Model the fold of this input.
Amino acid sequence: MFTVNTIDPSAQSQNIARGQLLLQRGGKPVWVSYIESGRVALGVLEDGAMEHQIGVLEGPCWLDASSAVLRLPHLVDALADTPVQLRQVSMADFSKGIDDLPEAAQSVLSDVAMAHRRQTEFAVSRLAKDAEARCAEWLLSHAQSGAQGQMAVELHQRKRSIAVQLGIAPETFSRVLRHLREQSMISGSGRVLNLVNLNALRSLAGV
Done:
């Protein structure tokens, strides 16, 4: 197993407070972090807050090792979502650890890293679509006919989980739902959301 101990057994643990920035989009890897414990949110920061979230990492695991393997800039921002304990190794030591692997293993690792990067690029590209449009599209795709013939969506998942699927922060999801209610496109504030104006929602979703 390719762990931090494989590369640098002397790397010291660090305690990172919740809310601290761990990676910045566009930055080139200088250190490679191994999360020993804690949760890290991945996505796009705006004004210091995780406005668009595409996923989370739970330790133990590497933090964006794909960018380090490929020697390419980070595609996403990473923010400590809880207190995090991690260890860091320099890019030079990390690269040497990879270079010491058999050639076949290096090739597989590079292919996996590239596949992961393409998935991340796709996820980030989805963020270009307006959050309200994505929410409207999600509501329409999950709508079912209710007892009175009105289309409605029953929330079987927590709003936080739905927000992660949509690539937005939970706060953004709640704000969008509130705005859709104010625009009389939906109604209801519990586990059932009624789709009041289907035509407006379709127009917003671009379908």
Observations:
- Helices lie at 4-7, 65-70, 91-99, 103-126, 131-141, 159-166, 170-182, 198-205.
